[in-house]
Amino acid sequence: MEISLTEFLVELAKPGVRCALQVRHAERPRIDPNDPSFGDALALTEEGQRTARLLGEALAAFKDEVTFWASPLRRTTMTAELMAAGMGVESAAIPTDGRIGNETFYFADPAEVLDVFKPENFFNACFEYYRVGEMRGFHNLYEASDKLEDWLLERLEKKLLVATTHDCYIAAYLAAKNGMEFTRDNWPRFLDGGATFVYPDGSKKHVLVRTGFSQGICGVGGKVM
Q1: Global model pTM greater than 0.85
Q2: What does the DSSP assignment read for 173-206?
Q3: Domains, the chain, with CATH or none
Q4: pLDDT tens figures, 95-124
């Protein structure tokens, strides 16, 4: 299931509703396929910086009810910083945790993951992992997603938690939590998000949020494969 940013804002505004929102970072330059750090130091493009701030502005109604976390990579911390600035959150120090980055709950052996996730096989490897739930170098999809959800909800101290992260982890989470089937056509774009809504009765809903700020799934100069 996916919803628009407008629908997300309406749902979040309901009394007693809280949300842990995993946001894919904004637009970045293309990653060198031989970079073992996954482009750790890559900053956002000018367009990425502009749109991250715009997404923050769209969430400004919740500026007094938000907590930020980020994957430690530069593009994810920048996205969180710019979203916070756009929201009008003052003196926002963004805490980081590798478990929502490339020390993720999903990886069992990062070296094997690099071998499986070669650029020419990236999407096929993702889709196979999401379909089967098991893959060399990875923990079980469902167990990993449960651990990630526990981590997010433990930190959902206010109405909204924003955790800036990466596309393949958002897709993995939604594949496990609501059975979404991803293809290249519906892959999370830059600044799309995976929302976990928590309701006053304790029930939860997991949806993909299409923020509409980008149609890109690869970095500038990359092609949609």
Answers
A1: yes
A2: HHHHHH-----SSSPPPTT-EEEEEE-TTS-EEE
A3: 2-30+40-159+168-201 (3.40.50.1240)
A4: 999 999 888 999 999 888 888 887 778 899
